[in-house]
Amino acid sequence: MALPKATVALPKPTLPLGGASTLGVTSVQKDEDEDEEGEAEPFINVALSAAGLVAALIVLTFQLMTASAWISAEDNPRSGEWSQLSPF
C-alpha cells in the first residue's frame, strides 16, 4: 500500500512584467534608500531610548507614590518606616 502524496508540483517561476532589467534598477534604488535610512538611525535610537527612560521614570514615580500611601497609612503599626518594604 503506497502512502498518499502530500506535495504537488509547482508551476515554473515567471519574470515580472518589466523583465530582468527591472531587477537591477530596483536593487540599486534599495541600496540608496538604505543609506538614507542609515543616517537617521542614530537619531531614532536616541529618541526611542529617551522615550523609554521617560516611561520608566513615570512608572517608578507611580510605584513610589503607591508605596508611600501604603507606608503612611493610619492603620499601619510601623507607619513611616520605608524599611518595611525590604524582605530582609
Overview of this structure, please?
With 88 residues, the protein is mainly alpha-helical. It contains one helix and no strands. The protein has one helix at 20-71. The protein is elongated. The termini are far apart. The mean pLDDT is 79.
Which ranges are low-confidence, i.e. pLDDT below 50, for 5 or more consecutive residues?
A: none
Q: Which structural category fits the helices and strands?
A: mainly alpha
Beta-strand fraction estimate? under 5%
Largest sheet: none
In round numbers, the mean pLDDT is 79
Sum up the overall morphology in one term. elongated
Q: What is the overall number of helices?
A: 1
C-alpha end-to-end distance:
70 Å
SSE series: H
Rg result: 31 Å
